[in-house]
Write a structure and sequence with these properties.
It contains ten helices and four strands. By secondary structure, it is of the alpha+beta class. The protein folds into two domains: 71 residues, Glutaredoxin, CATH 3.40.30.10; 158 residues. Helix content is 58%, strand content 6%.
Length: 248
């Protein structure tokens, strides 16, 4: 049995970053799906400082947050691979923008439509992965969980439009980085930047290799955006990253 345990929300694109990293670097781990609403108590039980996921528990202790988990995984890679970009200095600003701008607003854009107007489409993404007792808890309390998420994440019609505009700007920026026809965002090899960009854009690309988003039921406005953006260089790039590197 693996000594490393990873606790995630299956819908979270930040959790996907952690899962993909562990898989790519050949680290054996046991995956645990967590019920929204109960994750705070779980985090406290695990000894984490906050309530956010993902949380990794291993022989060295508790590691919380996708970036910290990625750093931990890089230090104990089991297959000789590395995700460190060739130009680590240039990579910092790109990675920060991916995490703090793109990822945040892709999430807000999606949830502002899905949770506010079509919450029934979000529920299965949580309950289908849970044990029976946890699934029943989420189903029975879904109305309250969804309302709490809407309030906590500041979701709504205006917020969706604001985040959509920001996402469109970030897609323009990523298209510009790929303008020369290169395969990767920085350098000649797959790196953390490519993994991050692809994982954080997976809700818009719904690649079949993604364990959750491959079958994601996206709401109507987001479906329209996906169709419009499908032929952008960055959309083709995300599909390529998943096809080539997700299930190696």
């Amino acid at each position: 049995m693996p000594s490393t345990h990873l606790y995630i929300f299956p819908i979270s694109h930040y959790c996907e970053k952690a899962c993909w990293t562990l898989d790519y670097l050949g680290i054996d781990y046991e995956l645990h799906y967590v019920a929204p609403g109960g994750h705070g108590n779980l985090a406290e039980e695990l000894g984490a400082e906050g309530t956010s996921l993902p949380i990794l528990v291993g022989a060295d202790g508790v590691v919380q947050g996708s970036d910290k988990i990625i750093n931990w995984a890089e230090s104990c890679s089991r297959n000789g691979r590395s995700l460190v970009p060739a130009d680590a200095t240039s990579a910092v600003d790109i990675e920060d923008r991916l995490n703090d701008v793109l990822g945040v607003h892709v999430r807000r854009m999606y949830y502002s439509e899905a949770l506010v107007e079509h919450p029934h489409t979000v529920l299965p993404i949580f309950v289908d992965y849970l044990e029976t007792e946890d699934a029943k808890f989420v189903q029975d309390t879904w109305e309250f969980i969804a309302a709490a998420m809407v309030e906590r994440m500041d979701l709504g019609v205006e917020q969706r439009q604001e985040s959509r505009e920001i996402v469109a700007e970030q897609l323009d920026w990523l298209d510009s980085l790929l303008d020369g026809g290169q395969s990767y965002l920085l350098g000649d090899d797959f790196s953390l930047l490519d993994l991050s960009a692809a994982a954080l854009l997976a809700p818009l690309a719904t690649p079949p290799e993604h364990p959750t988003y491959g079958g994601l039921q996206v709401p109507p406005l987001m479906a329209d955006d996906i169709a419009v953006w499908a032929q952008r260089p960055v959309s083709r790039y995300v599909a390529s990253m998943y096809r080539q590197h997700r299930n190696m």
